[in-house]
Amino acid sequence: MFIDLTAEKLISVEKEGRKIAVEVKSFQDRSDFYQFHAALGQFLNCRSALRDIMPEFIVYLAVPLETYEELFRFNFIQRRVEEYDIKLIIFRPDLEEIVLWRD
Fold first, then answer.
1. Among residues 5, 47, 65, 97, which one has the fewest Cβ atoms lying within 10 Å of its Cβ?
2. Separation between Cα atoms, residue 81 and residue 87, nearest integer Å
3. Is it true that domain 9-102 has CATH number 1.10.287.3510?
């Protein structure tokens, strides 16, 4: 099975004994809300596909710190994250550093 979800990166790693897959999004095109809409759809499709073929993986959506601080403060976005149980990794692209894990 081949899955192309146009993620900038799809990474699989092990964290504290758990297998995780991380879909990295840059949010660099068009409007932030459009990018969130696209990222949400891609994330949900990725998570569904991985549940079918690799159910042991937990899928995270990785977003840049600046995007998280500016976009994820809106109630609409916060409610979608909660509604769809989106696990987040917030990172600093300039330092290639993870700032926050949100389960």
1. 97
2. 8
3. no
